[in-house]
Amino acid sequence: MYANIIVTVLLWTIYFFLHSFLAASKVKKFVCQNNPLIADYYRIMYSIVSILGLIPIFYFLAVTRSAFLVKQTEVLKYVSMALSTWGVIVIKQSFKGYSIQEFLGIKNQKEQLLIKSGLLKYVRHPLYSGTILLCLGFWLFIPNTLNLVSIISIFIYLFIGIRLEEIKLVKEFGEEYIAYRQEVPSILPDVKRIWDASQHSNS
């Protein structure tokens, strides 16, 4: 069991390292400058690598036996499906205001503006918020040891990823993003802010 836990952590660590390494601005700049022919396809290649990199991890989790930590019940399944559904909804709403084709690299990215509308009025990283809900729902649906290790690994990386992403955003948008960061929470919405906004819209 301990060997399987180590392998799971190792697989996620390798995946996250490659994910962050390829996403780094310096790496992208270096690759594009030295290989002009792939400069226009870097983003889509990055997206493909990110998707394909998950296959060996999920395959390992699927074929490896792991002890359940919580007894599966109908109530737990309903809660898991509710969390997963909300996660998918939040992720879907997060893409509003963005071009999915540009995000995946199918189309070249235009000059980016700092978007603060939609869910971004309430959290700075709604995509991560949705991912957390989705991961929690997945674990409650199959609450075994290796899935828990996977979820913990993902959560640790999410907070590292947020830090790395915000460094890039501050460089890109400067004082505008710093002011936005001071006003809007990272991944957990300010319930009072949402309530006040809803009251204001109803008045």
- Please indicate the percent range of residues in DSSP E strands (runs of 2 or more): under 5%
CATH fold-level assignment: Four Helix Bundle (Hemerythrin (Met), subunit A)
SSE series: HHHHHHHHHH
**C-alpha Rg, in Å?**
19 Å
Number of domains: 1
Major beta-sheet overview: none
- CATH class wording: Mainly Alpha
Structural class: mainly alpha
- In whole angstroms, how far apart are the ends? 58 Å
Please give the share of residues in helix.
over 70%
Beta strand count:
0
Overall 3D form? flat
* Tally of helical segments: 10
CATH architecture: Up-down Bundle
Poorly predicted runs of 5 or more residues: none
Attribute tags:
single chain; Four Helix Bundle (Hemerythrin (Met), subunit A); mainly alpha
